[in-house]
Amino acid sequence: MNPKEEKVKIITEEFIENDEDANVGKRKKNSKVQRQPRKKQPPTTGPDKMMLEESHLGNQQELVQDEPQTRLLSVTARRGPRSLPPIPSASRTGFAEFSMRERMREKLQAARSKAESALLQEIPTPRPQRLRSPTVKELETEFGTESGKEVGSTQQEDDTQSYARVKFHVSARKIKSKPQVPPGFPSAEEAYNFFTFTFDPEPEEAEEKPKHGDGTHQEEEEGEEEPPTEEGANRMDEEELLHGKDAEDFLLGLDHTADEFLAVRPAHYESVHVRLQREKEMLFIPSRLTVPTYKKLPENVQPRFLEDEGLYIGERPEVARTNQNIMENRLLTQESGRRWFGDDGRILALPNPIKPFPSRPPVFMQEQSIKAELETLYKKAVKYVHRSQHMIGSGDPAGNFQLDIDISGLIFTHHPCFSREHVLAAKLAQLYDQYLARHQRNKAKFLTDKLQALRNAVQTGLNPEKPHQSLDTIQKTINEYKSEIRQTRKLRDAEQERDRTLLKTIIKVWKEMKSLREFQRFTNTPLKLVLRKEKVDQKTDEEAYEAEIQAEISELLEEHTEEYEQKMEEYRTSYQQWKAWKKAQRAKKKKKKQATEEHPEEETEEPYPEEDPVKPSPPEPTDRAAVEQQVRERAAQSRRRPGEPTLLPELSLAGSVTPNDQCPRAEVWRREDVKRRSVYLKVLFNNKEVSRTVSRQLGTDFRVHFGQIFNLQIFNWPESLTLQVYETVGHSSPTLLAEVFLPIPETTIVTGRAPIEEVEFSSNQHVTLDHEGVGSGVPFSFEADGSNQLILMTSGKVSHSVAWAIGENGIPLIPPLSQQNIGFRSALKRADAISSIGTSGVTDMKKLAKWAAESKLDPNDPNNAPLMQLISVATSGESYVPDFFRLEQLQQEFNFVSDEELNRSKRFRLLHLRSQQVPEFRNYKQIPVYDREIMEKVFQDYEKRLRDRNVIETKDHIDTHRAVVAKYLQQVRESVINRFLIAKQHFLLADLVVEEEVPNISILGLNLFKLAEQKRPLRPRRKGRKKVTAQNLSDGDIRLLVNIIRAYDLPVRKPTASKFQQPSRSSRTFREKHAASPDTRSPTHSADYPLGQVLVRPFVEVSFQRTICHTTTAEGPNPSWNEELELPFRAPNGDYSTASLQSVKDVVFINIFDEVLYDVLEDDRERGNGIHTRIERHWLGCVKIPFSTIYFQARIDGTFKIDIPPVLLGYSKEQNMIIERDFDSVRSLSEGSYITLFITIEPQLVPGESVREKFDSQEDEKLLQATEKFQAECALKFPKRQCLATVIDISGKTVFITRYLKPLNPPQELLNIYPNNPQATAELVARYVSLIPFLPDTVSFAGLCDLWSTSDQFLDLLAGDEEEHAVLLCNYFLFLGKKAWLVMGNAIPEGPTAYVLTWEKSHYLIWNPCSGNFYGQFDTFCPLKNVGCLIGPDNIWFNIQQYDSPLRINFDVTKHKLWKSFFSRSLPYPGLSSVQPEELIYQNTDKAAAAELQDRIEKILKEKIMDWRPRHLTRWNRYCTSTLRHFLPLLESSQGEDIEDDHRAELLKQLGDYRFSGFPLHMPYSEVKPLIDAVYSTGVHNIDVPNVEFALAVYIHPYPKNVLSVWIYVASLIRNR
Amino acid sequence: MAEVHVIGQIMGATGFSESSLFCKWGVHTGAAWKLLSGIREGQTQVDTPQVGDMAYWSHPIDLHFATKGLQGWPRLHLQVWSQDSFGRCQLAGYGFCHVPSSPGTHQLACHTWRPLGSWREQLARAFVGGGPQLLHGDTIYSGADRYRLHTAAGGTVHLEIGLLLRHFDRYGVEC
């Protein structure tokens, strides 16, 4: 809004207030408007446009004048002259303007007249005035102006004057705003006019103005039109004329009181007749009468009914008849209306689109039914039971299901106790049943009826009543009928014959039975057959019979004639042929004759063709008499003779049975036998007995009534349902007669709807009885001479019904079809019966298709569409039944990438595997952002592992048994680990919240007390190390510290000269051999050492994870190194989590070597100048400590026995030590070399905690409570001592520990070796046990728990840890009659472990089950360091003595003050059964396999040694190897003791000039890898003397149960010059 | 092969009439989505607000998805439970909300509801605790015919979720 406008607005407001002002405003505006054309001058306005504007204007005026009053014409007429004022001289309007105005005026005039004439035309009849306004409107529309708006405005004007005024203001404002006013001031003239002039009111204009808002052009036009009036107003001559009126008009326009604006009119009414008449002209009302068909169809066309022709046309939508008629009539009047009609003369229509059911389900009340998925369940506020939350495999079944089995009874059709009469009776009953069944079906009657019907059909078909059908089809159908008649007749005849024979047999059997009863003079069965005769009307019957025969004859004749005709046809053709041939023949003959006349010689050759066609004989016409004869014969045979009464047999049980006292003895016995028998049924569900019926006595009629219903609550889908029939005779045990398999009911069969069915059974048992009973399975005869024998088997019928139960809410308790697809199918089933075809019982698609074809389903019927589709899908070969529905439609279409591409992404795969905690990727730290940065080889290992998972690798394991065991172990491991992973997630509050204990007063006091303590700065104290949790560790953070302190009793070198000694090879006894050993030593041991070196220069090499460190060399057999070696530790895959650390399988090898210096100088002369020595190292022995032990123990501190090979060539034990020793017999048992070590991990790691998950158990609850109590009490007293009462078996169940102990037989082979020496046998047994490979549970089960396998499992698995070894050994000892206990305690280096304690006659022996060694109770070198508890086969004793070292405790468990026993007087031993097997069965190991394995191992080891020496040539000394191979079995038989000297002597004898170093290694066999490691750790291959030769021999000694003892002899030989 | 990281936390809940609250939550996605790492569902601790009305859980959510399509954008479904003084748990509300689809940090308020049940059940709930629960938890986020369910409004669960998207632009999805 510019300021000008603002001003104008103010002015216009004033204008409203008084007329003068209004006029001023008007003037001003008009003057402005007036100026407009001058400046713009739009002369180019097209005539049509003008026209438009004009008409507009005209309308305007018309309307305006029309509304207030009806003086339309007069006003315009008056207006005409007014708009034609003389042009004033002062006017600046040009001629052009004037002429234009002229033109417009003319046009206006023309338009007006035209409108008037149109009006006149339109309304020829006199009409009420009121009607005019609509017509005017119409007129306007004809002119193409916007009518609605203007009409609206006029009406409004009519309604409220005030509105018009407002409108006026608005339009005035608009007009003012629009013209382009030059910026600045009004012109002088304007200004003058404004102030001096008195303006005429311009009511007309005011009324016109509202319309001007339509466009600027209009305004301009208006402006052009206006000036004359203003000009006129200027001049006073015209003013007089107009002034008064205009002023009046203007006033009226503003004043409501003016009467002219209102008119009272009568209500507008149009008479009905007029209206109807008018409507008749305009409207067409179609008739409601039915349109005759001929009208709807093209001329001369018969309506055609598709449905009659068999085409499916669908159901038409229901439309009322009248509506249809109306529609048809209407269509017919339309152009080309006929195309709307179909061939049948009805309107074309699609099938009814309305579904028979509402598509939107009705809204139910809330209480009534809520959809299943919306169902809510009121749940009580209940505390969570945590335990059940984490149960495995608690896949809750959707509910329980119930199968109702109703067993109503049992009938024997044959039983051994049947008498002959019973046999017959059973037969009779059976026949009668058959008869009844046949009678009920009455097939003969049915077929007869059918025959009749067919005949009728043929009759009617022959009648030429329907001319429109072609003759062909009739003939065809008749032929079809006839063939069917033939078939039916045949069938009927057969049926009738069967009926008759059946009847005859029944009568025959009955007769036999009667004769039998007479013969034996008693009756056993109440059966009685009554034949009822039904009289028939002889005459009608005969007539019917005759008619039937006649009909048949005629048919047969017809048939025959047909046949005859056919044959005649054939005959004719063949005859023609024959004739032709004959003719030809004759012609030939003629020719020949002529020829023979010429050449008579050739006559002899008569060319007779072979296929001389015989003259066909005409077929014989059928003889009616013969046919009749035939028919009558057959009828006589199979049919009842006419007039013969129909026989109806009736079997009743009305007969009386002869009482016992009138029977012969045998029969009485039989009856008594029957009475003694009773029968019951067992119900087996999925091969498990679920219930059984009561035992019922067998009745005399061999029927048993049970009438029991069994409700089987089931969880699994039933696979089989079996009834077992058991029979008991007297008090003997029941015998199984037969099994009856019941079919599982269809899911549709529910209780109440299931019919009682009979299932037959039979048994193949042979029973011979010594009384009248015929027995079963044995031949018997009815004849006196024993001919015509019968063999009958026990058989019978069980009547039962099986059905699904119905739950209380009416839902059948049927399990879903299979466990996998519970959801969809059942839902689908509910949804649509047909769509469920593919899912449930109806699976035979071919049958379905056949049925569909036979029942002539209309394939076009949409109702059948799903069925048809299914059939077409199923029968087209692809077994793709779309029984799914797509959940996410259009997913495929909108996918970014395909599935394959997504799966191919290496980054995603890596991320996924990492989050799945797959071992290979568990500790993958950062995953590259781009695929291209990920190497393909990252996955290689993983993929390989996946591939190999199911392949038993025989490469690593060599023998298959172990491979299988390894696989099995892997599976057990996985399942156990899964179990623990679940258990691990079950946290207690203490696991999550660590609460610092608030110091109580005593601790505070103690601390205060400590302050006052004396300071002793010189007293060293061990400080606790800080423990490190595993998460924040990385490679290189953890080091293994091995502190090697000293060693004792190392073997010393032996002079090579000792070859002359021949020690006595006396066999020593067990007790003697240790004591005797010193005597064999040579006193001249230190005579000559090479180069005068000391006895031995040992050093220690520690290898761990292929890192090797070694100490400096010390001297002497008791060296002291006191060195700390530091070895880095790397966790597998960089995973430092507890679980991963626990499963580290690496072993710390501590090898002791002797460093030997050899002079390599060739020439003695150079000795003065230089030293040329070669350092060789000779392996002396090793100590192996598994990392897991170190990890769990945190530190290992102690003296360990060095594992020294039994034969160490060139070395012997230092004698002085032995001499110094105290010769205590027990003490000497622990002879050997020892090393003192301290091993720890820096920083200290927190060992994983064992899981306190409680396992389910089959133990008595009381016992479990007692164990808990016992353990708690023990832990309270001695928290550090191990107390074990229950253990977990391999299936994850808690088992009481004493159940593991039970005498078990060791292999007989071992017992036979030393039959008289129990001690030796014990040693042998211990050795056998130690040969079973050791596999710690902590490794296999990731340190989570200890699983105890029973001894047979252990022997099968051939792997176990200390517990299994100890249990087996203890069981063997118990078998050998020793008093033996399991000792639970701590040992070094194992940590918590199990040993075996035995009571020898005077002392206790402690056995290490894994090494086979034994120690006396007071042996200081016994690895068992403390004892927690003793476990016997029937009790547990906890050590409550002050000390727990075996040296210091008393093993007498009868002393209650020293040993707390589990079972005591208050809780007596309940006699727990053992979990161990009754007896262990040992298979002998295949010797050949062992030999093969031996060869393979030798080959592998040789290859390995060559691999380890890549830069040197490896020569093998065959001669030495064979010697060694020969020697190894000896070692095995002597268990590696005391043959060293013999062996040495022998070797020296054979390989005289070799310097020889080597040793046999002995190991239990588990895999090849440990063997290779062991050989590697000895370092034999490290010799790099150029002319070195090697020898390697392997010997495997097989023990029963695949326990293999492996000996490996490695040696290096250097030739002495 | 676009990726979505959902990192955030379930801050807590307000407006519940019960006091000791905890929340079970889960993330549901369509078939096109693949969880690369993270845990799909979980449960918070029980929080008893001492000051103020809001129960704070501050329960972390950290999920990494790969997707091959936009359909089935992840949505969170929540169940708020209350624990009474006897340690019994009862349902206080179900709720669900979509994980936002634009990257950045979002503060979400998820309003919850619980089934009302019949008047008898309501009465029982008022006096002995417990209450009607949905038999099928997926009704929470699958909007089947929930119109038949009569529910009462529960409180609001507040979530703070940060979203990282990757490679969506490659497939013509601007974000």
From TrEMBL, chain A:
Has UniProt tagged this entry with the keyword Amino-acid biosynthesis? no
Q: Note one Pfam family from the annotation.
A: CEP76_C
> What's in the keyword line of the UniProt record?
Coiled coil
Q: What is an annotated GO biological process for this record, any one?
A: non-motile cilium assembly
Question: In what ranges is there compositional bias, type Polar residues?
Answer: 1058-1067
Q: State the residue spans of region: Disordered.
A: 17-97, 110-162, 203-235, 589-661, 1056-1088
Q: Where is the composition biased (Basic residues)?
A: 25-41
Compositional bias (Acidic residues) at which positions?
219-229, 599-611
Coiled-coil segments: 437-498, 550-577
This entry carries the following GO cellular component terms, namely: MKS complex
The record's section on InterPro entries has: C2_dom (IPR000008), C2_domain_sf (IPR035892), CC2D2AN-C2 (IPR028928), CEP76_C (IPR056288), CEPT76/DRC7_peptidase-like_dom (IPR056290), DUF5523 (IPR041510), Tectonic-like_complex_comp (IPR052434)
Where's the C2 domain? 1022-1200
**Keyword presence, Transcription regulation:** no
Bias (Basic and acidic residues):
208-218, 621-636
According to UniProt, the name of this protein is Coiled-coil and C2 domain containing 2A
**What organism is listed for this UniProt entry?**
Microcebus murinus
Automatic annotation (TrEMBL), chain B:
Where in the cell?
A: Cytoplasm, Cytoskeleton, Cilium basal body
Q: What is its main location?
A: cytoplasm
**Keyword Acetylation tagged:** no
What InterPro entries does the record point to? C2_B9-type_dom
**GO cellular component terms?**
centrosome; ciliary basal body; membrane; MKS complex
GO terms (molecular function) for this protein are: gamma-tubulin binding
Pfam families linked = B9-C2
GO BP, one annotated term: cilium assembly
Annotated keywords? Cell projection, Cilium biogenesis/degradation, Cytoplasm, Cytoskeleton
Q: What the protein does?
A: Component of the tectonic-like complex, a complex localized at the transition zone of primary cilia and acting as a barrier that prevents diffusion of transmembrane proteins between the cilia and plasma membranes.
Family membership noted in the UniProt record: Belongs to the B9D family.
| Record's protein name | B9 domain-containing protein 2
